[in-house]
Amino acid sequence: MILKTANLSRNYGPIKALNQLNLQVNQGEILGLLGPNGSGKTTTLALVLGILHRTDGNYEWFEGRYNNPLINIGSILENPNFYGYMSGWDNMQIIQKIRNVKEGKLQELSELVGLKDRIHSRVKTYSLGMKQRLAIACSLIGDPEVLIFDEPTNGLDPQGIADIRNLILQIAGMNKTIIMASHILSEVEKICTHTAILNKGKLIASGPVSSILQSGNTFVISSSSHELLAQKISEMPGFRNMEKSENQLTVNFKEGVLAENINTFCLNNGIVLSGLVKKSYSLEDAFLKLLSEQK
Fold it and tell me: What's 3-213's CATH class?
């Protein structure tokens, strides 16, 4: 186990920025922290990095194996700041000294993040994407076991986002555990193995991304007997709600209702279906569904 929180909380006066968070991150996972603005994502990262003091609860890194666990963690919080008049190389050397690392493998890291040809240029000449890649290189100095990224693709163009995505996946393949906060749901879906969804400081869902995507039980159903289908399907056991369009129904059922149950029910009511497809959920669909259930 890499990280465990137990009822971790942070208050700002009467405002509960984080409310009794219970979360576990295991070796090799890529965890995506999701939530609307103000949901507690950045607060969570700041707490477990010791930047903020907790109001209540606890957290533990590496099951208590290290006296100073932060030595084994590299992080980027919000927008990285560098000395613009200095080169990327010089900035990396500063981080190496701060982290008290004798062998930082700076050349190897600059090549890894694609800055080999520009690492000796002044940072003020870097694009936003290059600065982000430099920040990732700096987070890797000292070969930490865990990396924490807060909005690593914030402000980047589509090509820059793709570059950072591929870089994070490459780093994950180096036996790293990664925790990242992001509001770009499609990127979390492509990158992360697990997710934790926060809303108003509370954890509302967590687990493998695949299980979150399967959280819905919605079918798209069509028949030439459209009106009869709409009438009868609402009487079916397990029916929750539906949306009507001109040629089809999108119907949400309770968990456990299968396509064969729907087909049998319709045939028993004299309805022949021309279409019956279980709707596949994107992470955005699941995210919005979970948030709507909190209202």
Answer: alpha beta
Give per-residue pLDDT as tens, 9-65: 999 999 999 999 999 999 999 999 999 888 999 999 999 999 999 999 999 999 999
Measured CA to CA, the distance from residue 19 to residue 200 in angstroms comes to: 8
Q: What is d(CA 106, CA 103) in angstroms, rounded to the nearest whole number?
A: 8
Which parts of the chain fold into alpha helices (H)?
Answer: 41-48, 88-98, 106-112, 128-139, 158-172, 185-191, 209-213, 226-233, 259-268, 283-293
Question: Do 221 and 248 meet the contact criterion of CB atoms below 8 Å apart?
Answer: yes
Q: What is the mean pLDDT of residues 59-88?
A: 93
Locate the domains of the chain by residue range: 3-213, 217-278
CATH topology of domain 217-278: Alpha-Beta Plaits (3.30.70)
List C-alpha distances in Å: 227 to 224, 233, 248, 271. 9, 10, 10, 11
